Amino acid sequence: FDPYPNIKMVSSIAAGVDSIMDCPSLPSGVTVTRIRDEEQARMMAGFAAWHVLHHHRRMGDYLDNQKAARWDRSYRAPMASEVTVGLLGFGLMGQHTARALVAMGYRVLAASRSGNAALDGVEILSGPGAVAAVAARADYLVNLLPLTDETRDILDAALFATMPAGAVLIQLGRGEHLVEPDLLAALDRGHLAAASLDVFRDEPLPADSPFWAHPRVVVTPHKASDTTRSEILRQVAENYAALIAGETPPGAVDRDAGY
Question: Structure pTM?
Fold first, then answer.
């Protein structure tokens, strides 16, 4: 940002702001904003719900059976009401995801930093131990956390060890949340049954990454949800109009919290 001495506002074109916040030249007095899009949050909810359903109903097996012309009806999936889905993060994305999963009949619990939000059918845990407490009870653990100093590397061997045997990780947050060798170790020793990964430390995911060919990993190319160019422009304009009017922009980021 050094070439822009008069800058007043920096806007992310997505929900994440960690690359902006980590930039050493970001002036201390500049307002940082991000995109908060209900449509994008609904896309995220659908994507997360699909992955839960994919693993819960073993859809990958059916696809493999189709290729082999194999008719196998032997698997009985537990009822959704018998399955617990844990959410890490309970902002806009997390709340939409929770609503979708509750509507599908799943038991849902969420780790919320503030603990202020409440939704019917969702158990909210807050406080320093909330993430570990949710992970310890989750058959399917969906990560939607923002990336901060507190959440970097949070998906590690210690957290995986708290999860029930046979649990599944659905990683939709930021690549730097996940300690990738720890996940591979948890999968290879059978403690975790599977993982869905949409974000990675190195993107595009290198061709030699073990995730591509891992039999229990679903890889998608950071496409869990998108917003539109028109909505980005609308929110940038809305945020700047509020700023020059002396108001707090609706998309303003709490720079102390990091999101």
Answer: 0.95
